[in-house]
Amino acid sequence: MKSRTFLKCLLILGLAATITCPVVSVLAQQSPAPKAGTHKVIAYYFHTNTRCSTCVKIEAYSKEAIEQGFPEELKKGNLEMRIVNYENPENRHFMKDYKLVSKSLVLVNTVNGQQTEWTNLKVIWQLTGRKDAFLNYVRREVRSYLAKG
User: Fold this and answer.
1) Among 134, 18, 116, CA closest to 69
2) How far is C-alpha 123 from the geometric centre of its chain's CA atoms?
3) Confidence check: pLDDT of 125 > 70
4) Domain that holds residue 83
5) Three-class SS string for the chain?
6) Pair 15, 60 in one domain
7) What CATH code is carried by the domain that includes residue 70?
8) Using alpha carbons only, how large is the chain's radius of gyration in Å?
9) Cα–Cα distance between 106 and 83 in angstroms, integer?
10) 59 and 96 share a domain?
11) What does the alpha-carbon distance between residue 37 and residue 100 come to, in Å, rounded to a whole number?
């Protein structure tokens, strides 16, 4: 009698394993769903091979505005700063993508890795002689883009 009960239990366990293993296997192969609305802002400073002192200053001020103004956002990955030479062959597409005609600071808003909008911060050229105004302008624009997430 005990052996029959034991065999029945083994059969039931075997049947349960046969049914559930493929389901568990399929579930394990599925990748987790991406977080809804993963938002990121990318600040690109675009330059060329030829760099004047004003261009170098714009890059330095841009980095300072972003790195000192948004350390937590940079650390969390909600904001990223990229310095790009758009004269390099692999980067030439940026000239068309963002209608670049000169060195530029461009903010790009992305959601789930897809670009949703961008802005070329052209006023930086007029603010190179006023560092505080430059930093405040860049931070205000970055803050505005971060708030869109």
Assistant:
1) 134
2) 24
3) yes
4) 39-147
5) CHHHHHHHHHHHHHHHHHHHHHHHHHHHHCCCCCCCCCEEEEEEEEECCCCCHHHHHHHHHHHHHHHHHCHHHHHHCCEEEEEEECCCHHHCHHHHHCCCCCCEEEEEEEECCEEEEEEECHHHHHHCCCHHHHHHHHHHHHHHHHHCC
6) no
7) 3.40.30.10
8) 27
9) 11
10) yes
11) 28
pLDDT at 145 over 70: yes
Walk across the sheet containing 104-111 and list its strands.
Answer: 79-85, 39-47, 104-111, 114-120
Q: Domains in the chain: how many in total?
A: 2
Report CA-CA distances (Å) from 16 to 6, 21, 68: 15, 8, 59
Give the model confidence (pLDDT) of 84-100 as tens digits: 999 999 999 999 999 99
Contact, 116 vs 109, CB < 8 A?
yes
Structure tokens at 107: 């903010």
Model pLDDT for residues 47-83, shown as the tens digit of each residue: 999 999 999 999 999 999 999 999 999 999 999 999 9
